[in-house]
Structure formats: C-alpha cells, structure tokens
Amino acid sequence: MTFAFVPRLALIWTVIFAMLLTNVSVATPSRTENDRHNREERGARTGLAILVGLSVNVLGRWLTPLDEWHAEIQKLTEDELFVERWMLLNDDPASIEKGKRTIANIQKQREAIEKKRKRFLWWYYPTVTVIGAGTMMLTFWIRKH
Predict the structure, then answer these.
(1) Helix/strand/coil (H, E, C) string of the chain?
(2) Helices 5-26, 93-144: inter-axial angle, 10-degree rounding
(3) What is the pLDDT of residues 59-97, one digit of tens each?
(4) How far apart are CA 16 and CA 135, in angstroms?
(5) Which of 3, 43, 109, 117 has the fewest CB atoms in 10 Å of its CB?
(6) Are 20 and 142 in contact (CB under 8 A)?
(7) Whole-Å CA distances, 95 to 54, 82, 85, 107
C-alpha cells in the first residue's frame, strides 16, 4: 500500500461508518402488530438500501482518479484536434512534420491513460459492488438489532 492510498482508505471507512451510524441512530421503529407499520418499515428499508448503494457509488467515484483521467483524455483529444487544424493552416513541410510528431505523442499519451483507466475499471466495479452489498447488509443487520 502506498502512503497516498492510506488516507483515502481511512476516509472511505470513516464516511461509510458515519453513514451507518447516522442511518441507525435516526430512528429505529418499534415492533408492533400493525400491518400498516410493517409496510412503512419495509419501505424505509428499501429506501435505505438505495441510499446506501448510491452513496457508496458516488463516494467511490469521488475518491478514485476516474474523473481526472476522463478529463485528461478529453483534453488530449481537444489538443489533437487543435494540432490537426493548425496543420491545415500551415503548408510548409517542417510545420506538417512537427504537427505529425505532436499528434503521435498526444495519441500515445491518450492511449496510455485509456489503458490505465480500463485496467482500473476491471477491479473498480466489482470492488464497489462488493463494498456496497456489504455495507447494505451491515446496515440491515444493525437496524435489526
């Protein structure tokens, strides 16, 4: 584990447990035989599951560099288009050669970032799914007791 990863991991667990503590401590319904109350309780649990799932998803997206990589890919694409337009305006062979080298460098950088992003996504989605399911199960278990 790198040193930069440890604070992120600590922040992730702190936020997850803060969400659980808040969800559990707000209100724990009392057990009654009223059917209407049981339906409301099931509805609250369904809403809680959706809230926890979305929170884990958003938190995972916020803590990972996926959005930064996406923005960098977009920027490199725009840079490539700019250089292509610049090459259309400049007719001399030296400028065209310089533009081709620049475009090749931009494409290499973009492909490297896309490859890194795809490799990251191979473990990101299963991890978020497992963490979200575990958090929901823990939430239901704490609310039950």
Answers:
(1) CCCCHHHHHHHHHHHHHHHHHHHHHHCCCCCCCCHHHHHHHHHHHHHHHHHHHHHHHHHHHHHCCHHHHHHHHHHHHHHHHHHHHHHHHCCCHHHHHHHHHHHHHHHHHHHHHHHHHHHHHHHHHHHHHHHHHHHHHHHHHHHHC
(2) 40
(3) 878 888 888 999 999 999 999 999 999 998 888 888 899
(4) 8
(5) 3
(6) yes
(7) 50, 14, 12, 18
Please, which residues have CB within 8 angstroms of residue 99's CB and are 6 or more apart in sequence? 83, 84, 86, 87, 90
Q: Which of 126, 130, 138, 124 is nearest to 67 (CA)?
A: 124
Place of tokens 């409301």: 40
Q: Which residue's structure tokens are 């926890």? A: 52
For residue 105, pLDDT beyond 90 = yes
* Residue type, position 77, single letter: T
Q: Give me 131's structure tokens.
A: 């963490």
**Are 117 and 68 in contact, with CB atoms under 8 Å apart?**
no
Can you read off the two tokens belonging to residue 129?
A: 């799914």
